[in-house]
């Protein structure tokens, strides 16, 4: 079972961070790090039933509470079977933005794919997304430093388009 969690306290109220989350699939949104990563694109507005993904990672929105919570379920046949979620957690004048993957790998290729390649790239993307959330509310985050393996994988799969 994979349980991969990224969470950051953002110095802004939950309503402000929730507005960022609600726009995550809109072109030009300040949250998704499209300067380095394929955009998150859906076949319609963010809502239950919307399908899409980013790059070769495809999913369907299976739960949505505006400003609070989004759940995406991976498309059948993908190397992971399960969900990934975003949640905004209010903490008074600050809030937390949390992303969780809760999934099983599918077969040997899913297990190896997740552990050797997808996880380092996923971790880098999510840390940049959290940096963007802080920047969007006027904070200056300590930029995420990519591990060497993530940098090599990024250049192999994302920059060269081998995904």
TrEMBL record:
Origin species: Nocardia coubleae
Protein name: SRPBCC family protein
Top-rank taxon, per record: Bacteria
